[in-house]
């Protein structure tokens, strides 16, 4: 049974909760294993479908995806433009996005229905050429039974199908990246495209004979590359076969000296450091549409990821894993009012890791990982885990104005030996021609953070994180080409990892699932569709996200909690062909933990570490940035071409992205000293694209 404690947001979301509760009770009776369930704290949350509809045979980019591609600050990268969508936070230090109070680790990524290991390079650009994207959807909460392995958000990228045309070659180069894109017809019933890109920043960085003032001497500058190939064969009107290959790599090498902050904190980290990551994925998809209202799809895929990090006194971490995957689903019209989808997936993952490293027992919730440093370890291990999932969903068109989608998902992980049964629900109610009510709810789980679950460095018996999502909102239209949407959400998180202090860990468990939390917020989106040569949108969101250490009872803001975020995007096309756009963002400063004093470093003589105050109780100054983009199509030697200019941080605002102890100065003086790290200043870039 559920124990409701209604807070104001739960009262607003009561409609969602009542519908979902009756469904959850039935699911609980079917669940094969009792778990510490976040559903005992049932509270409201939501899912937002940010970008257009999915269409199976589509070779053109959707209008909404095109808007993201041309958004200023994105450098033509539609996935990188997600930071302008409501509820999405990019960490100040870089990395994958956090969505609606969830951790980046809570997300899952799909490419054409196939799970993807990562879709962002180490330096924050995505792995996709903009010409390959057909549609992009962000399910920020309350997503349906088809999706598993995520407790935060789902990023669903749909690649467009190749065009049946004469083979064309597009060359694209800017100060940051160069690429080639080839597309055309292979046979009467088949077509393909191939994208290959390489970062160029390494060619603009000067060689260094000695370390800079930050203690870094770059040996090999940051460099990345990616490729994507897709072949589609329309065998006949009922059968379609697709072959796809995706890959990416990231590499950087540098020397870290005594003036580098991490070396000042850990002197044994001094020396050459290297990051060398890469993945390769291949997939075969068969689509069968025997008759109207029926569709079957099967995907068979293989994914390989290699991650190597080296630093300091012969420290290294090498983690390789191979994933073999099969997924199928079948949709059919049971009656005129019911569309049923049945599906499932099976995944076999083999992990191999070789670690010679300092053992930090630490999670993203700890404010001072240095205090959790343990002795260096050398571990070599292999493990295999199998995940299996089945689901059923029913879309019931109750009448012309009301539809209800209900779903049930059962999933099992062999390594952690856990089974879950999760209910999902979504309600759409057209209250009037210009007003629609939207609500959704669901229960979710994901695999534990791999570093916390590995034998010898983690706890192989740790429990998987679970979450409840509830959402409630309205959307409507007014005037011509204008629309709005208001969404509220509530998420609960349970069984998140907690690092055990060494003096409280006699059995060397290292981690237990004893952190919980919640996230709640309201978002407003105002959108103007493309008309009269311009379009734009504005969003404003308010949210709070907290985490509680259940062992100590201490509650604090989540490290990526960002209460207020404002975005405004506009684009205008002049009659001359020039297209000019801007994007402005202003948001609350990121939460951080204040250093209140210093103390001797217990591992290194004459070195110091910080004494920290209340976790994440302070905030950095407000972050604001203005980006511009201008583009102009023209003809070059009779070929289609485009010239574009990007200006990131056009106001050259020095945003503070980190505030911490200045370890270099402290080690020299023995006195407390704080330093601030600032985001990059103004960054202009120009580029040229030509199609032959």
TrEMBL record:
Record bears the keyword Membrane: yes
Q: How does the record classify its membrane topology? A: Multi-pass membrane protein
**Name of the protein in question:** Outer membrane receptor proteins mostly Fe transport-like protein
Q: Which GO terms describe its biological process?
A: siderophore transmembrane transport
Q: Which SUPFAM superfamilies match?
A: Porins
Q: Which residues form the signal peptide?
A: 1-26
Membrane-spanning regions, if any? none
Query: Please, which domain of life does this record's source organism belong to?
Result: Bacteria
Q: Which GO terms describe its molecular function?
A: siderophore uptake transmembrane transporter activity
List each copy of the TonB-dependent receptor plug domain by range: 80-154
Print the keywords alphabetically. Answer: Cell outer membrane, Membrane, Receptor, Signal, Transmembrane, Transmembrane beta strand, Transport
Reply yes or no: does the keyword Cell inner membrane apply.
no
Q: Where in the cell is it found?
A: Cell outer membrane
A cellular component term from Gene Ontology for this protein is: cell outer membrane
Q: Which PANTHER family match?
A: HEMOGLOBIN AND HEMOGLOBIN-HAPTOGLOBIN-BINDING PROTEIN 1-RELATED, TONB-DEPENDENT OUTER MEMBRANE RECEPTOR
């Amino acid at each position: 049974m559920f124990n409701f404690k209604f807070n104001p947001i739960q009262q607003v979301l009561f409609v969602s909760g009542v519908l979902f509760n009756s469904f959850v009770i039935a699911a609980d009776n079917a669940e094969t294993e009792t778990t510490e369930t976040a559903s005992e704290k049932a509270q409201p949350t939501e899912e937002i479908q940010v970008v257009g509809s999915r269409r199976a045979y589509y070779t053109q980019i959707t209008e909404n995806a095109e808007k993201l591609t041309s958004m200023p600050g994105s450098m033509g990268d539609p996935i990188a433009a997600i930071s302008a969508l409501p509820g999405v936070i990019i960490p100040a230090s870089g990395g994958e996005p956090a969505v609606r109070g969830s951790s980046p680790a809570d997300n899952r990524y799909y490419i054409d229905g196939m799970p993807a290991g990562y879709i962002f390079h180490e330096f924050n650009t995505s792995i996709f050429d903009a010409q390959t994207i057909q549609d992009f959807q962000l399910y920020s909460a309350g997503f349906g039974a088809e999706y598993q392995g995520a407790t935060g958000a789902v990023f669903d990228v749909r690649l467009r199908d190749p065009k049946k045309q004469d083979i064309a070659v597009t060359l694209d180069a800017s100060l940051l990246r160069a690429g080639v894109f080839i597309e055309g017809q292979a046979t009467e019933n088949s077509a393909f495209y191939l994208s290959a890109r390489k970062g160029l920043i390494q060619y603009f960085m000067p060689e260094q004979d000695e370390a800079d003032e930050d203690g870094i001497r770059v040996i090999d500058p940051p460099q990345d590359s990616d490729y994507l190939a897709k072949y589609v064969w329309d065998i006949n009107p009922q059968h379609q076969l697709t072959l796809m290959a995706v890959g990416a790599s990231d590499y950087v090498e540098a020397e870290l000296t005594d003036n580098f902050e991490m070396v000042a904190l850990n002197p044994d980290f001094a020396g050459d450091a290297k990051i060398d990551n890469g993945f390769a994925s291949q997939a075969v998809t068969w689509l069968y549409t025997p008759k109207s209202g029926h569709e079957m799809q099967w995907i068979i895929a293989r994914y390989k990821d290699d991650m190597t990090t080296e630093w300091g006194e012969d420290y290294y971490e090498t983690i390789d894993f191979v994933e073999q995957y099969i997924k199928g689903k079948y949709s059919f019209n049971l009656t005129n009012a019911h569309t049923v989808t049945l599906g499932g997936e099976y995944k076999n993952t083999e992990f191999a890791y070789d670690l010679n490293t300092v053992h930090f027992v630490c999670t993203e919730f700890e404010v001072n990982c240095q205090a959790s440093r343990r002795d260096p370890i050398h571990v070599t291990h292999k493990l295999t885990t199998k995940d299996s999932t089945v689901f059923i969903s029913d879309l019931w068109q109750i009448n012309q104005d009301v539809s209800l989608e209900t779903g049930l998902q059962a999933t099992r992980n062999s390594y952690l030996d856990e089974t879950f049964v999760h209910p999902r629900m979504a309600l759409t109610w057209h209250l009037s021609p210009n007003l629609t009510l939207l609500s959704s709810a669901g229960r979710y789980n994901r695999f534990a953070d791999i570093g916390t679950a590995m034998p010898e460095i983690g706890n192989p018996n740790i429990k998987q994180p679970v979450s409840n999502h509830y959402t409630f909102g309205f959307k409507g239209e007014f005037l011509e080409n204008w629309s709005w949407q208001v969404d509220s959400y509530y998420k609960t998180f349970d069984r998140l990892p907690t690092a055990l202090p060494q003096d409280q860990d006699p059995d060397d468990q290292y981690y237990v699932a004893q952190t919980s939390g919640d996230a709640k917020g309201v978002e407003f989106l105002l959108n103007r569709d493309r008309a009269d040569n311009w379009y734009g949108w504005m969003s404003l969101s308010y949210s709070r996200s907290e985490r509680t250490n259940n062992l100590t009872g201490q509650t604090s803001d989540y490290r990526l909690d960002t209460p207020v975020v404002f975005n405004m995007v506009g684009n205008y096309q002049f009659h001359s062909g020039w297209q000019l756009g801007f994007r402005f963002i202003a948001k609350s400063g990121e939460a951080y933990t204040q250093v209140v004093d210093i103390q001797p470093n217990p591992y290194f003589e004459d070195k110091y570490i910080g004494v920290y105050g209340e976790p994440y109780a302070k905030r950095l100054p407000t972050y604001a940035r203005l980006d511009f983009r201008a583009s102009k199509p023209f003809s070059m030697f009779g070929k289609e071409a485009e010239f574009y200019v990007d200006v990131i941080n056009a106001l050259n605002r020095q945003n503070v992205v980190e505030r911490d102890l200045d370890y270099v100065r402290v080690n020299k003086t023995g006195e407390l000293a704080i330093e601030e790290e600032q985001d990059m200043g103004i960054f202009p870039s120009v580029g040229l694209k030509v199609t032959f």
